[in-house]
Design a protein that fits this description.
Radius of gyration of chain C: 28 Å
Largest sheet of chain C: 7 strands, mixed
Number of helices of chain B: 12
Low-confidence stretches of chain C: none
Chains: A alpha+beta (159), B alpha+beta (291), C alpha+beta (782)
Number of strands of chain B: 14
Structural class of chain C: alpha+beta
Oligomer: heterotrimer
Low-confidence stretches of chain B: none
Strand content of chain C: 25-35%
Distance between the termini of chain B: 52 Å
Strand order of the largest sheet of chain B: 4-5-10-6-7
Largest sheet of chain B: 5 strands, antiparallel
Chain lengths: 159, 291, 782
């Protein structure tokens, strides 16, 4: 019999109580068990950052965690930031600066930037670049993402 | 790349965890941050039969000052928590510098201080930092408690003195002496990547700027992280002149490290890096100690 | 008059969806009852297959089926070729060996599929892989491009006499006469490295068979929806319109996603029909490295003949090109190399020979740049070597030989990947050179800054090279533009989008004719149920070919709208304009009719129509250029090298680029940035490495170094030149690959310049600190 473990995980403000296999990766739990497809999977070994989510406010790779490890935690994914009709200032900044092309890495960058700007509301270009260094992008060459993070900081300060 | 199945236990206390580890013996493996273990499991290069997840054992997460002015760190404390801790920043800035070189923030938010030490990856930072700071390690089992110095803990690549039923519970750092300078030097292909060579130095000077003690920890260039022997041999009781430092650096590069050739660099290149980095590291540590 | 929507940096229509987690990528597609596929791949690089035992795997709970080539029966067949052989080139030899989607008798590369597991979850499917046993006779591995042609080398295709895949010679003028006239002949053996496309999203495929209506619905990350749909139709014996192939959002393409006749499109549909369940296969990262195509591996024996004043007399280039274990993609990549060696300078005599060889490695097909970067690399390295020997400044040598604008359009005499002569259509090459030289302050750096730095023991070097990018090749693309009854506009095409901004740029082109807000133009890309004809995304052709088709169709729709409005408003067409979604009288804006109303009227439901009438405010159009349009530019780099650790930092990067009319300048810059990331990766980080047994050592991001944000310079300084191409009405050229083409050549020139006193003589397109260290050590001891 395959072992199943009970978990109670809050994602974007909703509590989900489920029974899952211990080996179920958090990324798969979020995407397929909960149907939140905004978090993407690029490598499944913790390097590309496409799967980055916030766990209790801290950015982490959902592909190198089992869902059972975050039982009781509060998770935020890209879906918590904004909607098509009303985007988060960070998302607006990304659009303004053409900081995405195929969009696959983008949710990971957004969640990384959300955590970063919380503690660093006025980054220099160099600081912003270092902050996103753990996320891979194949399309943009990163420059527009750096500018978007800085623009987002300004937009968020204005609010 | 999905992991193979395993039995899973999530104890909520140290006692429960020790019971389980004792029961499982060789088939049990501790799951701490998972940032090294889970990628290996996703590749199916690691296939533990059973995992004992310590993430619910809150008693293992703490940073406490010790009576002698040092710090005691619970092994399940997240790397990023250690990195940002006020006391750590005050008392061991070199530890903060070291942790900042571990991968990226997202990894450090989950990776644990003790997990990295118990995992003993020859290319990892924290085992070297433990050696440099002369850490004392508390190991628990159902049988009781024992203490092992960091210098006696690492025995080979991914191998420590920990028995299967044992748990690394606490890392105690003695206070750093006055007039101590430190330096972290590494060369890696990219920021956050494994180092091709890395050196962390600690130099304590007396009031006439002679070296009381020189510690040079290296990692990524041998089967384990290690403390070089040559520094004290040459420098203890002396003024650390550029020539003396150069002698130490050249010796360590030639005789005390064993970097292989891999796809990112040749052995010759990496020995050259050791030479350069030991020199830079000791030079900076001495300068800092003087301030 | 409405404002033009061309050459404007509109924000992208597609962004809000993608930014808020509302994208629909292949792995986002889930159906009830869906089954998941995992592929058993060979560990051995070269082996004969005796038996594949799947019995134990089939017994695993949750496993529904396991298939090998045997189980496919007559359905299994190699191929077909995706790109036809180069019969247009006289005397060319080509041994067609199309891809085998799953190995039957023989394994030819490590990672080659040998069995397919279908299970209730991907987890269980991967569990089952362990239970499949292979009875193989290992054979010797061959991976060296030159050794593979030596007598006695193990034969990869045993029905051939050797591992020669193709032999193609092209000649302009006479190399011998160039040598006879030359004052110097410089020779270099040049090696280009092997890199992966490494899109963030891996490949995937979902197939669902409706057994009632006999319709196959397919979602695929393919860059070529129509050819793949047709390939599936042929395999399955279905009519084209029984298959609806749809592109979901695609997380990056860069070339490898154009391949078809692989496990995805051949086997997954077969399984879907057999099991009557939706089937999903999504590649994981390790598989992507092992089993998705890659590119760049060549060995060149190149020579350049010059007069001592620096005039180029001729170039000779004989090179080995690695095609991997099969050659389904024909000669596209090495032909691009041949054309790009002689695409910038006056080279009156040129002899070039491709020896395309089989190796026990994964198949090679285009990756951003697609062979062009090698051609540029070879030419620029030859020039740098000549400059050294003649003691001429490298920039001066280029100035001397560069094709001036009055020479264009220029017939190179070399046939390219589109099987016609490569003609350089337009541009001002000297201007690009001067713009970069000026912006990077070349003279000042060489004369003032560098000597001072040298005196301080610092090693900073500067490089300046020219490049071209052959783009927008045929055969054709098409599109349909329609005004809907709401007045909004819809475009359909069967192209493929992987992030290039087509949802916005295509809208801009249509809006320019129809006077609507670009947000009111929706674009459907890559749905074969909505549009039947097209080729695919490669060679940076989307904006030019599809864009021109959209433009032409929009012009027709505009004419229809004006004609109908003229009748309804009782006003001559010349007095009417399209603006803000209506057709109105220019001086009497109150006299108007909305586009939506016109669309309604254009499709009568009663009465009679005039002869030749076509209903609706819609038009379709096709466009096929006579040959490709050539973009070009000049890259300058200043590199700072730590002489002790050989670590390199890019201090400045300046690029002048001309890609014709920029429909959306912001998107053009984005393409340049992205290309540069890959170019920098190719020069200093990315390298696929096979060991002596044919095992791919770099099969994860731990070993294959993916360029990060801090590997880039602080700023990509771009200087734009716009020379509209004469080949299409909007004057467009492609831009997708420029950045990936130019970096390695410039990087190596700058490194040599940083160590000017030690003649480094770099012959590789891939550098690392360790390699640089050894280059310097070698030069010091010489």
């Amino acid at each position: 019999m395959t072992q199943k473990v009970k978990v109670a995980i809050t994602v974007n403000g909703t509590l989900y109580e489920r029974e899952v296999e211990p080996r179920l990766l958090l990324s798969d739990f979020i995407r397929h068990d909960l149907g939140l497809k905004g978090t993407h999977v690029g490598c499944e070994h913790g390097l590309c950052g496409a799967c980055t989510v916030l766990i209790d406010g801290h950015s982490a790779r959902s592909c190198t965690l089992f869902a059972v490890m975050v039982d009781g935690s509060d998770i935020k994914t890209v879906e918590s930031l904004g909607t098509i009709e009303k985007m988060h200032p960070l998302q607006e900044a990304f659009q303004d600066k053409h900081a995405l092309q195929c969009g696959f890495c983008t949710p990971g960058f957004l969640m990384t930037a959300v955590e970063y700007l919380e503690g660093n509301p006025n980054p220099t270009a160099e600081e912003a670049r270092e902050a996103i260094d753990g996320n891979f992008c194949r399309c943009t060459g990163y420059e527009n993402i750096v500018e978007a993070v800085q623009l987002a900081a300004k937009k968020m300060a204005a609010h | 790349m999905k992991p193979a199945p395993f039995d899973y236990y999530a104890p909520t206390s140290i006692e429960e965890a020790l019971d389980k580890l004792s029961e499982l013996g060789y088939s049990g493996k501790v799951l701490a941050g998972g940032q090294s273990l889970i990628p290996a499991m996703n590749f199916r290069m690691a296939r533990p039969t059973a995992l004992v997840d310590l993430n619910k054992v809150k008693e293992l997460s703490y940073i406490k000052p010790t009576a002698d002015g040092g710090l005691a760190i619970g092994t399940m404390t997240r790397d990023s928590v250690v990195e940002m801790d006020r006391l750590v920043n005050e008392r061991y800035p070199i530890l903060v510098k070291t942790i900042k070189h571990i991968a990226h923030r997202q990894i450090r938010n989950r990776g644990t201080f003790g997990g990295a030490i118990a995992h003993a990856d020859p290319a990892a930072q924290l085992p070297a930092a433990a050696l440099l700071l002369d850490a004392n390690l508390k190991i628990l089992s159902k049988a009781g408690e024992r203490w092992v110095k960091a210098t006696d803990f690492f025995i080979g690549p991914f191998m420590t003195v920990l028995e299967p039923e044992e748990l690394l519970a606490e890392v105690v750092l003695p206070p750093m002496a006055a007039r101590t300078g430190t330096s972290y030097q590494q060369v890696s292909r990219q920021k956050g990547a494994y180092a091709q060579a890395a050196v962390i130095s600690l130099v304590t000077l007396d009031d006439s700027d002679r070296v009381k003690e020189a510690r040079v920890a290296l990692f990524s260039v041998a089967e384990t992280a290690f403390l070089a022997k040559k520094p004290n041999e040459v420098l203890a009781g002396q003024v650390a002149t550029p020539e003396a430092i150069e002698e130490v650096a050249a010796y360590i590069a030639k005789n005390e490290c064993d970097p292989g050739t891999d796809i990112h660099g040749t052995e010759e290149y990496r020995r050259n890096l050791v030479h350069v980095l030991v020199r830079r590291s000791l030079t900076e540590a001495v300068q800092q100690a003087k301030k | 008059m409405t404002e033009s929507t061309i050459s404007k940096s509109f924000k992208r229509n597609e962004d809000p969806r993608l930014l808020t987690g509302n994208g629909n990528y292949i792995d986002d597609i889930d159906f009830p009852g869906m089954l998941h596929v995992a592929i058993k791949r060979s560990d051995y690089a070269h082996a004969r297959i005796n038996k594949i035992d799947t019995t134990e795997a089939k017994k695993l709970p949750g496993v529904v089926a396991v298939y090998t080539a045997e189980d496919l029966g007559d359905y299994w067949k190699p191929g077909p070729l995706q790109v036809p052989p180069p019969t247009a080139i006289k005397g060319s030899i080509f041994h067609a060996r199309p891809l085998e989607c799953i190995a039957k008798h023989k394994i030819r590369f490590s990672g080659e599929p040998v069995a397919v597991v279908v299970a209730e979850s991907r987890y269980i499917a991967e569990d089952a892989l362990d239970y499949i046993t292979l009875d193989l006779d290992p054979l010797e591995y061959i991976g060296d491009l030159e050794k593979t042609l030596e007598p006695g080398a193990p034969l990869i295709h045993e029905d051939l006499e050797s591992n020669l895949s193709a032999d193609v010679v092209q000649e302009v003028g006479s190399w011998e006469s160039a040598v006879a006239e030359a004052d110097i002949v410089v020779k270099k053996r040049i090696v280009t490295n092997h890199v992966a496309g490494a899109a963030l999203e891996n490949r995937g495929f979902v197939a669902q068979w409706d057994d009632n209506f006999k319709i196959l619905n397919v979602w695929a990350t393919t860059q070529g929806p129509i050819p793949m749909r047709n390939s599936i139709a042929r395999y399955l014996g279905l009519m084209e319109n029984q298959i609806r192939l749809m592109n979901p959002d695609i997380g990056g393409g860069f070339g490898p996603k154009i391949m078809s006749s692989q496990i995805d499109d051949v086997i997954i549909p077969w399984i879907a029909i057999k099991l009557k369940k939706p089937i999903k296969w999504v590649e994981d990262r390790r598989e992507n490295f092992l089993g998705t195509t890659s590119e760049r591996d060549q060995v060149h024996y190149a020579e350049i003949a010059l007069k001592k004043d620096g005039t180029i007399l001729g170039v000779k280039d004989e090179f080995y090109h690695n095609t991997g274990a099969y050659n389904p993609y024909g000669m596209t990549v090495p032909l691009n190399t041949q054309t790009h060696v002689v695409s910038i300078y006056k080279v009156p005599n040129y002899y070039t020979r491709i020896k395309m060889v089989f190796t026990n490695q994964m198949v090679v097909t285009p990756v951003r740049g697609a062979g062009r970067s090698h051609g540029i690399f070879v030419m620029e390295r030859l020039l740098d070597a000549a400059a050294k020997e003649l003691s001429i400044d490298p920039v001066e040598l280029r100035r001397k030989n560069i094709l001036p604008p009055e020479y264009l359009p220029f017939r190179t005499g070399v046939i390219g990947q589109d099987f016609v002569e490569n003609i350089l259509d337009s541009g001002n090459y000297p201007l690009a050179l001067e713009k970069t030289v000026e912006a990077i302050e070349y003279e000042k750096f060489k004369k003032e800054i560098q000597p001072k730095l040298r005196a301080e023991g610092k090693h900073k070097g500067i490089g300046v090279i020219m490049f071209t990018e052959g783009t927008a090749v045929g055969p054709y693309e098409g599109a349909k533009v329609m005004v809907g009854v709401t007045g909004k506009v819809n475009i359909v095409c069967a192209y493929s989008n992987q992030g290039q901004g087509h949802y916005t740029t295509f809208a801009q082109i249509a809006a320019n004719q129809l006077g609507v807000d670009i947000k009111d133009v929706s674009v459907v890309i890559g749905d074969t149920g909505q549009w039947q004809w097209g080729v695919g995304a490669f060679a940076s052709r989307g904006i030019t070919l599809v864009g021109t088709a959209i433009h032409q169709a929009s012009v027709k729709v505009r004419e229809k709208a004006l004609s109908l409005a003229s009748k309804l408003l009782n006003t001559p067409q010349e007095e009417l304009e399209l603006s803000a979604g209506v057709v109105r009288v220019a001086d009497l804006p109150e006299k108007f009719i909305s586009l939506g109303e016109l669309a309604m009227r254009a499709n009568p439901t009663r009465g009679t129509v005039e002869e030749g009438m076509e209903p609706g405010l819609e038009a379709a159009s096709y466009y096929g250029p006579p040959h490709g349009a050539t973009g070009y530019g000049c890259l300058g780099l200043i590199l700072d090298v730590d002489p002790e650790t050989a670590k390199v930092k890019i201090e400045r990067l300046v690029i002048a680029d001309d890609c014709g009319t920029n429909i959306n300048p912001m998107i053009v810059d984005g393409q340049i940035h992205g290309g540069l990331q890959m170019g920098i990766g190719e020069a200093f980080y990315e390298n696929l490495v096979y060991d002596d047994y044919g095992q791919l050592v770099t099969a994860s991001f731990m070993d294959y170094l993916f360029p990060q944000a801090t590997d880039m310079p602080d700023k990509f300084e771009i200087k734009h030149i716009v020379t509209p191409s004469p080949l299409n009405p909007l004057g467009m050229k492609g831009i997708g690959e420029a950045g990936a083409i130019c970096v390695p050549a410039c990087y190596m020139q700058a490194l040599e310049d940083a160590f000017e006193d030690q003649d480094l003589d770099i012959k590789d397109s891939f550098m690392s600190p360790s390699k640089l260290y050894h280059y310097v050590q070698k030069a010091k001891s010489a």
